[in-house]
Amino acid sequence: xxxxxxxSNDSQKLQNAIITKIRDLINFKNLEPxxxxxxxxxxxxxxxxxxxxxxxxxxxxxxxxxxxxxxxxGTFVANIGVIxxxxxxxxxxxxxxxxxxxxxxxxxxxxxxxxxxxxxxRTEEDLVHxxxxxxxxxxxxxxxxxAVQEDLLFHLAIAKASGNSxxxxxxxxxxxxxxxxxxxxxxCDEDQALKGIKEHTDIYEAIKIQNPSLAKEKMKIHFKxxxxxxxxxxx
Length: 235
Fold this sequence. Notes:
The protein is mainly alpha-helical.
């Protein structure tokens, strides 16, 4: 566990160092919106890191809208003033890695909304996908097997059915970290997996009959243990 943490921290420090160098390069060369950055290869040589390291840093800045990569053309400074760009990069560099509780809290807020939207917007194809993940979860639970992955796949199916690509992306972003740490923090009771079969089914049925308020209410019931974990005073 310690090795993983150290590796993660080192990777974060390296990425931040490259982002800082990219910012300094933009300032030194007085690059303006629409100006092109040197290639990944040139940046890797200049910063003495791998192209993969540079690519990760660029992708992070692109995620926040500060750079724009165009296939076969290169990477360009986005349409944002240099003062705002520097300020946003400073904010990015100060971002802490989200702790598990904050990830779970974000998941709760997202899923109450995605359940409601899915009930309104779901397609027959969405229902089929949801039912497949629901059945896979039930099968594993009844066979006394770990079903954490199937649980989250069911919720991702709901996010997809919401028809909101941003919410879907956010769910995809936070899910791997939750999946990695779910059991480590002992969030739910041992019998929660069995309860989850009925709770998942209730959510699915509410989405199937296209009742947004009922879908949201059933999701709230499903997240009772997570609510207690996030909002109880005890650690």
